[in-house]
Write a structure and sequence with these properties.
It is a single chain. The chain has five helices and five strands. With 150 residues, the chain is α/β, with parallel strands linked by helices. The chain has a five-stranded parallel sheet. Helix 1 packs across helix 5. The chain is globular. The relative contact order is 0.19. The C terminus is likely disordered.
């Protein structure tokens, strides 16, 4: 039997308190297959992670993600610039991207979708609302069931 390898979520967020909120919501989600959450704090760090540049060269410790979860507002390059870059890279063009934002500005949300974000969600402040979002997004990291061969 092949062991279940947890799927990986690359979370790009510079607010440490929101990272803790996401981690708490993951634990409270009661999902049986929680993702391997890899956290970076800037778009530039996400580029390094995805391209296997130091300190992210070890793919066992830093596996390629099945989902990128990013904030819109980041130090340096924005979440929108990260999305644009991801969609320009052939190896990441189909990688699911979810943007969490504190901004309810229509132009930010429209820009995110135009650049190729799969979902753009307003950041909830409560753990329970985040739990619901995590449960909905779990489709990206729960491995599909495999049929037994006879």
């Amino acid at each position: 039997m092949i062991p279940n390898i947890p799927r990986t979520v690359l979370y790009v967020e510079d607010d440490a308190s929101y990272v803790l909120l996401i981690q708490r919501a993951l634990r409270r989600s009661k999902l049986t297959d929680l993702p391997n959450l890899q956290v970076v704090t800037a778009a530039e760090e996400a580029f390094q992670y995805l391209l296997r540049h130091p300190p992210y060269t070890d793919r066992l410790a830093h596996p390629l993600p099945n989902l990128v979860l990013t904030d819109l507002r980041l130090p340096g390059k924005s979440g929108l610039q990260l999305v644009k870059w991801l969609r320009e890279q052939p190896q990441f063009a189909e990688l699911p991207i979810v943007m969490l934002t504190g901004s309810a500005l229509d132009e930010d949300i429209e820009a995110a979708y135009e650049l190729g974000v799969n979902f753009c969600l307003i950041k909830p402040a409560e753990v329970d609302a985040l739990v619901s979002i995590i449960q909905a997004l779990s489709v990206y990291w729960i491995p599909p069931s495999t049929k037994a061969t006879s």
